Amino acid sequence: MKEIEFETLIICPGGILKESDWDKEQEKWVLTDITDELPMSLYDKCILDENLTLKDIILLCKKHEDLFKIIQRKNFFNDYIDYLLEEDCEEEEFDDTLEVRGCEINFTLDLDLVANKDTSTYSYYHFDFYGIDTKEPDMEIGIGVIGHNVRKYVNLPIRLKEHMYLTDSSKDIKFETNKEYRAPEITLGEIINTIFYEISFYGGPAKAKDFFNELRDRANECKKEYSSLEEALEDIGNY
């Protein structure tokens, strides 16, 4: 772990929550284990240990299971917490062409909504949770975790994106900002909510699996009916 020289929370391997604070007697920054004090720290800014995995965050939540069963109930915490931590489980189907090497939490700002002051459909900004695919040389591709075997991500490293993304919903474009536009600080509660919101977007594990199995079946039917994607899109355009 790199030395931390500012006041913050840090999630560490093993599901440990520590706090960095200045020790006047030692005249240096020290880390103190405050895992038991998590409920009082949800609104404090937080960073991730450089060796952290998604499983470490899940383990931290497990230690305060009763709390998160209440505040994360809409994100199906009850269904996912043990599901994600199962060691011996039957592998589910997923797109094995994906070469996911890690997870990322990033910050996105929509320039079009800001310019038009329109928050009727979405917030100006939000945090996202993605898998990172590095199949292409020198290129990282964000992959939504929904629709894939979420357990595939549990033991992968996770990081906070240093720079924000800017989007323009009116033009359907997205690009990463340069170093002049750093992502804002994120709180412990936002980290946990961002993860569980994303993985539970289509409901609990069983409901999500049924939804994507049906989607896969429909896609296979289309493949049999149409010889190419262009043909399918042309047919759709005729309706």
Topology:
Elements (H helix, E strand, L loop, with lengths): L7 E5 L3 E8 L4 E6 L12 E3 L5 H9 L2 H7 L5 H9 L14 E11 H6 L8 E9 L7 E4 L13 E3 L4 E4 L4 E4 L11 H12 L5 H21 L3 H9 L2
Parallel strand pairs: 1-4, 5-8, 5-9
Antiparallel strand pairs: 1-2, 2-3, 5-6, 6-7, 9-10
Helix pairs in contact: 1-3
Largest sheet entry: 6 strands, mixed
Uncertain residue ranges: none
First-last Cα distance = 58 Å
What is the general shape? Answer: globular
Number of DSSP E strands: 10
What would your notes on this structure say?
It contains 7 helices and 10 strands. With 239 residues, the chain is α/β, with parallel strands linked by helices. The protein has one domain. α1 packs across α3. The strands form 2 sheets. Strands 5, 6, 7, 8, 9 and 10 form a 6-stranded mixed beta sheet that branches. The mean pLDDT is 80.
